[in-house]
Design brief:
single chain; alpha/beta; Arc Repressor Mutant, subunit A; D-Maltodextrin-Binding Protein, domain 2; 3 domains; 11 helices; 23% strand; globular
Length: 315
């Protein structure tokens, strides 16, 4: 099966028409149509139905698309590897993280990293926790930074920092006058929380249940920064990871400790038995320094869990 045929199918699915796919690929419409016809003939089933000159994806097209994109991603990686061999670079850093972390500390850490490793080529992806773990297992990424839980027999999981939740609100909110916020304080407030697929969301729900308080959820989001920005717009009160809330700092935001047993543990996930590169060690050092500096600047209590963490030495 030719790669070009898969690329044509992918382009049509993305653009919606043969003409748009042809423009994207730098081909003629007739050439795109011929390649699509040959792919359908090779597969033995139609990928599109034609109605009044419009292509309608057939039922099997969605299943086909996910498989095709996996193949094209793999081909792209191989081509990139070939390009790197022809054009050597001094170093590279390839990692994955979750949305809340990507919007918070990663840009600051990369700034510090590039001051020491300016010639490095960095690639980082943003995925869910489970997808991040899978990326390390399949070696699509060299490591992941995420919040626990995370485990797999082929991985080394190193807890780095633990913090609690905070209530984040506009500075003019009446609750901003309190030193600490309880579930009872939030009984009649619009709540901004992380989505149900986030591990700590279960703990938050349990905290309100223990207090006998029914949550009045206004917004669910996958990002701590997004939740804090909504709180800044006076939509409600966000209950989120204290440390991550620091990176959404704004003059109009107020962060108060939330009385609960909700803990957030930030961890490093690496493949077992794989040696760290010098670039990884520099990045980890910048990361640890940044977390400690930000927590101190904002007066956020964090528990350091990495006494055995060390940066490898290279000659």
């Amino acid at each position: 099966m030719q790669i070009k045929r898969l690329e044509v199918f992918d382009a049509i699915m993305r653009s919606g028409t043969v003409s748009a796919a042809a423009r994207e690929l730098g081909m003629t419409q007739s050439a795109v149509s011929r390649i699509l016809a040959r792919l359908e003939e090779e597969l033995g089933f139609p990928l599109f139905y034609r109605e009044r000159g419009t292509l309608i994806p057939a039922p099997r097209s969605s299943d086909m698309l996910s498989r095709v994109r996996s193949v094209l991603d793999a081909v792209s990686s191989i081509r990139e590897l070939q390009n790197e061999s022809n054009n050597p670079i001094r170093g590279k850093l390839n990692f994955v993280t979750v949305p809340s972390l990507s919007f918070s500390f990663v840009p600051e850490v990369l700034k510090a990293f590039y001051e020491q490793k300016p010639e490095t080529r960095v690639r980082y992806d943003v995925r869910t926790t489970s997808a991040s773990i899978n990326a390390v297992i399949s070696q699509e990424a060299d490591f992941a930074l995420l919040t626990l839980p995370a485990s797999h027999p082929t991985l080394i999981v190193t807890p780095l920092f633990r913090t609690k939740s905070s209530a984040v609100m506009h500075k003019d909110h009446p609750l901003a006058k309190k030193e600490r916020i309880t579930a009872a304080d939030l009984a009649d407030e619009n709540l901004i929380v992380l989505s149900v697929r986030q591990p700590t969301r279960i703990q938050l729900d349990e905290a309100f249940n223990r207090a006998g308080v029914k949550q009045k959820i206004a917004i669910e989001t996958a990002s701590v920064v997004s939740a804090c920005k909504c709180a800044e717009q006076r939509i409600g009160v966000a209950v989120v990871n204290s440390l991550m809330a620091c990176y959404a700092e704004a003059d109009d935001l107020c962060i108060r400790p939330f009385d609960s047993l909700i803990h957030h543990t930030l961890a490093l996930v690496e493949p077992a038995g794989k040696k760290r590169t010098p670039e990884m060690d520099v990045f980890f050092s910048c990361f640890v320094n940044n977390i400690e500096e930000v927590s101190q600047r904002h007066g956020i209590e964090i528990e350091v869990l990495h006494p055995g963490y060390s940066v490898s030495e290279y000659n």
